[in-house]
Design goal:
Blueprint lengths: L2 E10 L5 E8 L3 H4 E2 L4 E3 L2 E3 L7 H11 L10 E5 L4 E4 L6 E7 L9 E5 L1 H9 L6 E8 L3 H12 L6 H7 L9 H18 L9 E2 L8 E2 H14 L15 H18 L16 H22 L6 H11 L9 E3 L5 E3 L7 H20 L1
Parallel strand pairs: 3-9, 6-10, 11-12
Antiparallel strand pairs: 1-2, 1-8, 2-10, 4-5, 6-9, 7-8, 13-14
Organism: Alishewanella tabrizica
InterPro entries: DGQHR-contain_dom, DNA_S_mod_DndB
Protein name: DGQHR domain-containing protein
């Protein structure tokens, strides 16, 4: 096996962190590192990269082929333990990084964590001996690779859905906004990929682009309920997480009941049903909290059953106009079913209407 030997500096970060800084010819990067695009293998997440963006790659390629290109930003590569560092100085900070060159379709020792578009442009560009700075770390742990991918990319323009889908598969401490979303994202992942979920593969994510419901609508629903709704009862106040099994069961019971009471409006395109729209998901989330409060306060039950949810939803069905007709919000305010938008005013009007009808027609 051929070994590529490159001068490198070892950089110590923290008690157990080592980075290696060196340069590779742009054309050599794809000889030692691959792109691990995010995908699903059965119900498990694999990989962590976003799809290549051809327009961006072409822009970088054109720049590389210009008269005097310079790219100071290092490409970040995660190597597995087939790659080694051989110190050559007394203090061990200067040496050589040894990278095996793998033939054919065999698994390469490296994965590009950051710089996918640059690496692709370097592969395609006519840029001769152009040298590219590399920042690398060595680990066999795919979770650590995902964590570094999130940390590197969370401050850049990156699809939020991809970040949220990766969050449940990490354990490292993240920035506070991401830390708060990790548990809701984990519950969303269960709802989307557990075979017993009524929302199985219905939530639109990076790995499930054909889903009917936007992931952000479900995340907001979960976060709201965790803060002051039905899910709050199962929450651990110390860390903001909690009994995910109980939360999953409660949400499965509720949304199963929703799907049975409104079958014509369920699992269809949002243009055909406002139940699948952000406005419908948000308002029905608040209704879930209200129904849970009724049964929990009256019977002290932790998990409301599908039949209990169905009973109350059936009484509200005549007032719901998910696929046709007009919502009658009162005071001469009638809104056609498909004119509801995912804006604050419509969200508030629809939520208030459903909660008012529920308290007046059902709870009373």
């Amino acid at each position: 096996m051929k070994i590529l030997k490159v001068p490198a500096l070892k950089i110590i970060q923290g008690p157990n962190r080592e980075l290696y800084s060196f340069a590779l010819k742009g054309k050599d990067i794809h000889s030692v590192a691959a792109i691990s695009r995010v995908k699903r293998e059965e119900n498990h997440l694999a990989g962590y990269q976003r799809p290549e963006v051809s327009s961006h790659i072409n822009e970088i390629k054109s720049y590389l082929e210009s008269a005097n290109p310079m790219i100071p930003n290092a490409i970040v590569i995660a190597f597995d333990e087939r790659v080694t560092f051989k110190p050559l100085s007394e203090d061990g900070t200067f040496g050589e990084i040894h990278i095996p060159l793998i033939d054919g379709d065999n698994i390469k020792p490296g994965w590009v964590v950051d710089g996918q578009q640059r690496a692709a442009a370097l592969r395609e560009a006519n840029c001769g001996e152009f040298q590219m700075p590399i920042s690398a770390f060595i680990t066999n742990d795919t979770q650590e690779q995902r964590e570094q991918f999130i940390l590197v990319n969370s401050t850049k323009p990156l699809p939020k859905g991809l970040i949220y889908e990766l969050l449940p598969f990490t354990d490292t401490k993240l920035a506070r906004p991401l830390q708060k979303k990790r548990f809701p994202a984990r519950l969303l992942d269960e709802l989307n990929y557990h075979p017993d979920s009524p929302m199985n593969r219905m939530i639109k994510t990076a790995t499930n682009p054909n889903g009917k419901i936007k992931d952000n609508s479900i995340l907001k629903l979960i976060e709201s309920s965790l803060a002051e709704g039905a899910l709050y009862r199962f929450r651990d106040a110390k860390n903001g997480e909690g009994d995910i099994d109980a939360m999953f069961q409660l949400m499965c019971n509720y949304w199963s009941a929703v799907s049975q009471v409104f079958p014509e409006a369920w699992n269809v395109n949002p243009k055909e049903s406002r139940l699948m729209h952000g406005a419908g998901i948000s308002s029905m989330g608040h209704l879930m909290d209200a129904i849970y409060d009724r049964y929990h306060s009256e019977e002290h039950e932790d998990i409301v059953s599908i039949n209990q949810f169905k009973h109350d939803l059936e009484l509200l069905k005549p007032y719901c106009k998910w696929t046709n007709g007009y919502w009658d919000f009162g005071t001469d305010q009638k809104v056609k079913w498909n004119e509801l938008q995912n804006i604050s005013k419509d969200l508030q009007n629809l939520t208030n209407f459903l909660l008012r009808k529920y308290r007046n027609e059902v709870w009373r």
